[in-house]
């Protein structure tokens, strides 16, 4: 849902942060160390398959993909399935397709597996790709069933190009929240929503107006949800218990609400599509 026209106009004209502070963040520890090993294991299984189906989040169709994945495939037919299309703002879908085609990906399907949208296109597309490619005639391929699916674990890039890319992956649940920090992720989410003028969070939480200060915003959310905690403060006369807003709980709710699509569809890769690469590259 959108804000009322007057409130939306006021929010759109507000001065939002132009960039997100990324310095000093230890991105390397966010990602499991087995990714390179997983990619090698996948490579060893390629001789058993005729077509690769890569499943990715439609909210990060560009920045979240592993650049080494395409090189690993060789000449195998390749289908990219961008799932969770219901959570993504696909206004720029044509640009997304053009960018992916420029990277050598001509076969792309947007899906929503929960509601079975476009999912039925996958098997016919795979069948067509295999039928028009050079196959190995293997004795172990049976006719019942006609198609086998070899599932593999998710494989992220062993090294990410920027902190912002890592934060996008984290928002989509690819990285464990506690490794990045829920309040850091909530701050990046707030920054992103404001930057792209997605102010549905204001109405969802019943806030007076859009906000660019994560501490103030989380405090309002905590108060609205009744999420508080007792904090012991040492004073000159002894310990005093003070009731304070539970900021981590408010941050968790903000993230979960976003992931459930209750803050409207969002395209986290708009900056990449518009030719604005992440501000900092990880060395």
- Judged by helices, strands and strand pairing, the structural class is alpha/beta
Poorly predicted segments: none
CATH class of the largest domain reads Mainly Alpha
Q: Characterize the largest beta sheet: strand count, sense, and whether it forms a barrel.
A: 3 strands, parallel
Which value, in Å, is the CA radius of gyration?
22 Å
Domains (count): 2
Predict the CATH topology of the largest domain: Conserved Hypothetical Protein Ylqf, Chain: A, domain 2
* N-to-C span: 40 Å
- What's the overall geometry? elongated
- Average pLDDT rating: 83
Share of helix among residues? 25-40%
Subcellular location: Mitochondrion inner membrane
Keywords: GTP-binding, Mitochondrion, Nucleotide-binding
InterPro entries: GTP-bd_ortho_bundle_sf, GTPase_MTG1, P-loop_NTPase
GO molecular function, one term: GTPase activity
